[in-house]
Every structure is written in structure tokens, then in C-alpha cells.
Amino acid sequence: MSYDFTGDAVLVTGASRGIGRAVARAFAAAGAKVTILSSGAGIHAAAREIAAETGRPVEALECDVTDSAGLARALASLERIDVLVNNAGLERITPLCDPDPAVEDIFRRITDINVNGTFLVTRHAAPKMAAGGRIIVTASIWSRVAVPEFAAYVGSKHANLGFTRVMAQELGPRGIRVNAVCPGWVRTEAAMLSLANMSRRTGRSEADLLEEIVGAQVLPGLLEPEDLAAPYLFLASDGARDMTGQALMLDRGEVMA
């Protein structure tokens, strides 16, 4: 299925790599005017690469999503936003009983990016959105289930679903739809780092753990970032015009909820 977003202004956060980059590329290829935002300098290279791949201009904004004042300055350059993809996030292991003080710092940073950052970006973007605007939040299948030693990430993704539903109700009267995408295990840098940490803490090989993860899916194979792009386009399209406050599970049947 092909989509045409010509004339739409799309903002994707956390788009320097992984799912965000794949989604931004898909919107650009579909004709949208794409702006990507991330806290790292790599966002500029990502914009150049996406522009080269799609033949479409892509603007890069370097900003930390937890910095409200910085977001206000960064988004001031955008006249309007038709589609906002809240994808910026951090995934790290945070074992409850690990005595290392760094665990608490990591917990706070994950919560700050995944929860506060999602709120702040939406707070600054919403005034630039008119009736027909669409917001898509990247949640996770771990917003529906739980796994040990990922308290910050799992908790933040549960919060993302709550946020999606509240914003759907709050912005609905303005004609703005808000939905979430809940990916399963995807071959991203963050997911592979989590796999390595799980391997280190359990003493099991990464290959063994990955086989177990994929084995829990109804459909075989590990998802790639590009596999998730089309569902984001669908949620932003007229085909989903009657959907809001919903969570779309993209996990090859791992969690059926």
C-alpha cells in the first residue's frame, strides 16, 4: 500500500537511528516535509542521509526532549506540525536490587526522556497543530506486560499508553488524533544492548536468548526497523481517521492484547 503525505509537515523525535529514522524516511519518501529531532549531533548526518535516499529535503533539530526551553526554541522554526511522531526514548536495564548508585541515575534519565520528554514535546507541538493533526507515540509491548530488571523502561512505556489515552481525550475536541504503536523486539541498537545486558546477567548466550524471544512470537523472525514504518503511515493516514486513543501491537503475535 502506498501513501501520499505531500504537503504535510511531519516531526519525528529520536530519529537519528533505529525506528525513528526508518519512520522519518518513510514519511519523506511519501512526500512529507520532514523534520527530525534528537539530542545527539548525529541527527544532522541522519537528515542528510534521508534526504539523499528520498530526494526530499529533511530538516534536523538538535535538542534534548527533556529541555522545555530548548524545545520551545527549536520548534519556533516550524510554522505548523501536521503529524508528530513521539519516538525519542531510552532503554536500559535497571535492576531493583543492584547496589550500584548508577542504577538510580539511569532510572531517572529513562523516566525523564520517555515520560517527561514525550509530554514536553507534545506540549510544545500541540499549539502548532490544527484540526486533522495526528500524534503517534512509540510505546512498546512492554507497556502491556512486564519483564524483570527493566522497571524504568517498562514503567515509562506503561505511562506512554496512559498519556496517549489522556491526550486523545484532551485533543479530540480540536480534531487531533492520538494513537500509540507498541513494537515487539526490533533489531535496534537499544534492543541489542538490552540483549547483551540480559546475557551478561543471566550467563546465557545472546543467541540462546534471542532464539527464546523469537520463539515466543507466532510469526517467526526478528523485526527490523523498516518493518514498522508502514503502520505509522497508516495511523497518520485518512484510513485511520476514526482511530484515536488506541495502541497498535506490532510484535508478530508475541503479546495478543
Automatic annotation (TrEMBL):
Any Pfam family matching the protein: adh_short_C2
InterPro entries tied to this protein: NAD(P)-bd_dom_sf (IPR036291), SDR (IPR050259), SDR_fam (IPR002347)
Gene3D superfamilies: NAD(P)-binding Rossmann-like Domain (3.40.50.720)
Record-stated family: Belongs to the short-chain dehydrogenases/reductases (SDR) family.
Protein name in the entry: SDR family oxidoreductase
Organism whose genome encodes this protein: Tabrizicola oligotrophica
